[in-house]
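Issue 218. Parser rejects a valid record. Input:
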Amino acid sequence: MGAVGAAGAAALLVAGLTGPAFAAQPPAPAIALSAGYLSGAVGAIGDPGVGVDVAQAGAPAASLKVTVTASSDPAVARVGDVRVDRTRDGRRLTVHPRGRGHTELTVTVTGRGGKSAAATLGYAASARVSTGAAGTRYLTGSSDASAAVDAGGGYALVADDESNVLRLYDRSRSGAPVRTWDLGPALGVKKEVDIEAAARVGDTVYWTGSLGNKKDGTYKAERNTVFTTKITGSGAATEVTFTAAYKGLREDLIAWDTAHAHRYGFAAGTAAGQVPKRIDGNAADQYLILAGSWAADDKSDPYALYSWDGVPGHAPKKRADLPTADPGGWEAVVAVPDLRVPGARVQLITDSGSADLYGDGAEAKDLGHPEWKKSRSAWFTLDSVRGGHR
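Output the parser choked on:
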């Protein structure tokens, strides 16, 4: 083999440095989840999911591969229990859990050059409900639903007794609220007013605090609040505007009761801190009474729905027995249907704040991630004697 001259050696060196062996390597891809935490339920229909955004310089996002590569607790969800579907905006991840509890799911994107990146999703699954799974939906972001009104267009405005935030939910879907309104500043309070009931008249919604004492029997001024909001629009376009508040109703009721031989026991009721369940009426002056234990975590007494025609002396009529085997106490009636129609259906929402949803011993209201806090809604069919659950 002949010797190579200096010019030839330089040419080979340049060729070697710029050849395939020294080609620039692609950068690592990037992955981002729309939420770091997600909740679901065993056997649920339509559980919420999370969006997955991926990117890699020099490669279209559609060409990148997204997979779930690990689960810290396969008893809750295995890798094969997780779906990653393509959407118009990217990918969407949903979980179909097999057991109650918590697991961390590793979501991996693989791109050009075999480069990869990963993100972790904290997932929690509650137990399968004993009845009515097909009609059950989960409203996330809060676990202490206490009052609700129909916002029209298939949406409901929901309050809870642990904050002054109103949340707008799609009544047919599980997931987070589409909009929220924090009314604390407008009410001039820093702590919750303990919202326990609501009624809509036209475009005005009347909300009331519990007007009762705290659990330890002491007085809390914020709870002595009644306020109104105005609703404009409907459905996902609903707007809520604070209009007025009154903070003397408790004293008015106690004074009236005292002056009328304690006819309704308002004075004694405020001393004992007893809070009744909701009573709702509709445009036809029909009333639907949600009855059960005053204690949110007490399942020893049955829950039931009663209708009443509003006529003094007429007894209420039981329309449905409500199941109590699942976490949470039935708390809110979204809207009262025409109770004269056979097979009328009503949607109820639970207060699950005291429930141990995931078997970890923690009350739902104390969970650190809003996505894991949730209330449960379900539809019930009313009957003249007993009600069926769907």
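Fixed in the parser; the record now loads. The CA atoms of residues 55 and 61 lie 5 Å apart.
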